[in-house]
Write a structure and sequence with these properties.
The protein is built from 13 helices and 2 strands; from the N terminus they run αααββαααααααααα. It is mainly α. The protein has a single domain, classed as MetI-like (MetI-like fold), CATH 1.10.3720.
């Protein structure tokens, strides 16, 4: 009985800490909320000297870089997880899974350093010129290598283990009877994977993608080091941008007024709400898929 109450207290403590964090952010963001109101979300003017605080460029940079990272990482993550669950020999599954998941153990600042010294110069010299030749409005010069697109590539590598690990769990939860039934009806290996594994798991896969999105939204150091840190809204992915996490990391220690600190706290509160909602929905989707197969 004592153990039951003790573990219950620890579980409640986690919820209490999250609630306390949200409360203190709300209190800290109070002056900014009172002064800027809804315009904080719609304005693109960010000038602490003039007392102008609009979060739209940071929200835009966060969403665009995270969405591009998902577009890049999702095919690789799903492909790796399908290979590990359906195609790879048993003796290779755990070592390959370990190599992929160990990417999550690399510190964010290491990814940032790799991005600055290796990826950004490579993008500037080799990749960005090729993209600019396409003539699309999303790829315009000049390029410094530090851009929204570079940040998206870094993020895609960082969220790859999340998509792979959770998708693998979802695929492994599919009963073997589904696969056997498909083969008995004459389905090929590819048709079996598509119809008996991927199709029944699509809700759980969506949850895995949303969890990865939550990780990408809150990433700080790596994005700060390669995104360029320019609060602008532009369709050009080769231009510098900014994100909600990076502006907090860059400016909080140098905030020159109480209103500036409050505006940064409001960005933190907004980021917390977005990631919290995404993670709750994603976990519910994964849980719904696992529960469906257990029935």
């Amino acid at each position: 009985m004592i153990f039951l109450y003790l573990t219950g207290f620890f579980a409640f403590l986690i919820l209490a800490l999250a609630a306390a964090n949200a409360y203190f952010l709300w209190v800290a963001a109070g002056p900014s909320i009172a002064k800027t109101g809804f315009s904080f979300l719609t304005s693109s003017d960010w000038d602490p000297v003039q007392g102008l605080f609009g979060s739209l460029p940071f929200v835009y940079g966060t969403l665009v870089s995270s969405f591009l990272a998902l577009l890049i990482a999702t095919p690789f993550g799903l492909g790796i997880s399908l290979f590990l669950t359906e195609l790879a020999p048993m003796k290779f599954r755990d070592p390959v899974a370990f190599l992929v998941e160990i990417l999550a153990a690399i510190p964010s600042v290491v990814y940032g350093l790799w991005g600055i010294f290796l990826l950004a110069p490579f993008m500037r010299v080799h990749v960005d010129p090729l993209l600019m030749k396409l003539g699309l409005p999303f790829f315009k010069g000049p390029s410094t290598g530090l851009s929204i697109f570079t940040a998206s590539i870094i993020l895609s590598i960082m969220i790859l283990p999340t998509i792979t690990a959770i998708s693998r769990e979802v695929f492994e939860a599919v009963p073997n009877s589904y696969r056997e039934s498909a083969r008995a009806l004459g389905a090929t290996s590819w048709e079996t994977i598509l119809l008996a594994v991927v199709k029944p798991s699509k809700v759980g896969v969506l949850g895995a993608i949303m969890l990865a999105m939550g990780r990408a939204l809150g990433e700080t150091m790596a994005v700060t080091m390669v995104i360029g840190n320019n609060p602008q809204i532009t369709a050009n992915l080769l231009a510098a941008g900014h994100s909600m996490a990076s502006v907090i990391a860059n400016e909080f220690s140098e905030a020159n007024s109480d209103l500036h600190v409050s505006a940064l706290a409001e960005i933190g509160l907004l980021l917390m709400v977005i990631t919290l909602v995404l993670n709750i929905v994603a976990n519910l989707l994964v849980w719904a898929t696992a529960t469906k197969f257990k029935k």
